Input
Amino acid sequence: MTGQPRDAAHWARYTETLEVAGLRKGAGTRNVEGRRPVSPLQGFGKMWQKTFKVRLEGVGASPVEVVGAWREHFPEISGFGEGFRVPSGGLVPGAVALLAGGLTGVMVLYADEESFTYMTPEGHPFSGWITFSAYRDEDGTTVAQAQFLIRANDPVYELMMLVGMNGAENLQWQGTLRNLAAHFGARGRVETKVVCVDPGRRWRHYKNLRHNVLIRSMLHALIAPLRWLRPRSTG
Amino acid sequence: MSGAAHGGEGLHASLQSLRGEYEGVRELERKRRNDMPQAQVTMDVRRVEGNVSVIDVKGELTAFAEGVLMDAYNQASDGRVRAIVLNFEGLEYMNSSGIGLLVTLLIRVNREKQKLLTYGLSEHYRSIFQITRLDDAIGIHDSEEEAVRAANAA
Output
C-alpha cells in the first residue's frame, strides 16, 4: 500500500448508493438500499453542531477502550436496542446498519481506534455526520463525546425539529452518554452544547421530501391492500 | 547555636524535599501535556493575484486543527478577498472531524460571499471529498493556476 496515507483504512470506500450487506434482505432494507449518503450540505434545514460530553471520573479506561466498547455495544448503549441492526461484519468503515427496524439506517463513514462516524442516507430525518469519540482531558480523565453536524433533511423534518424532535434527539443522546458512563461504572454529568452553524434554510433542497422515509413508509402501508389484491386477481 | 544549626539543616532538608516533590509534579504535568493530543498541522497564508488567498495546509486535519484553520482563514480573508484556495499537497492525515471543520469553514466562507476551492488532493482524499459529498460545494482543481483561474472566473 505504498503511497497510501495512514487514514486510508479508516474511511469507507466511495460508493454512489448504499448497499446493505450482512443483514437479511427484504422489506427492512427498502428505505436504505440504493439511497445516496448525504452530508450536511445536501440537507434542507438550519445546520446544527451538537456536542454531548461526559467525563468518566474515576474510570481507568483509555479513550481506545471507551470507543471500542461503545462501538461493540452500540445498540444497547445508544438505547436503540434490537431496533439498531448491526451487519455481521460489525461497524467497520462502509458498513450499513439499520435503524428503527429498517425504517432508516446509517453508514459507517469513518472508524479508527478513538472515534467512529455515521453518515445518514437520503430520507433520514437528518443529513449529516455523527461522530463518537473519546479523548484524555487535561487532568487525565477520559472524556466521551458525541458530536453531530446535521441539518433536517426536508421541510417536514424541519417542522418536526421545531415541534419537539430537536429536544427528543438531545434527550436520546444525553441518555446514550449516561449509559456509556454507567457501562464503565461511572455516573457522569452530561454536558450539552448546541450551536446553530448556519441559520439559513436551503429552499432548493425542498425536493428531498420525495425520499422522506416516514412519507414513503406511510404510502407503502396505504397501498398495501392493492399489493395484496394484485397477486390474488392474477392468480 | 548547634540546635539552631540543626534546625536550619532540617529546614533546608524539608525545603529540598518540597522542591523535589514540586519538580516531580511539574514533570508529571509536562508528561501529561505531551500526552495530550495537539494540532499537528501548519497553515501558511499567501495572497495571490486577483484577491485570492491560498492556505498551504501541511500535516494533519483533525479536530485539533480548528484553531489553526480559523486563524489562517481570518488572515487569508483580510481585505477584499473573493476566494480562498486550500492547498492540500502537504495533507498527511485527515479524519471525519477534519471533514467537519471544512464544512464549518465553507459556511463561514459562504457567509462572506467568498468561494472555497482546493487543489493538491491525492486520489485518496479526492474520493473522501466524493463520499462525503463535499465536492458538491468545494471546487476541486489539479493545480494552483487552475484553482486561481476558477476563483477569478465568476
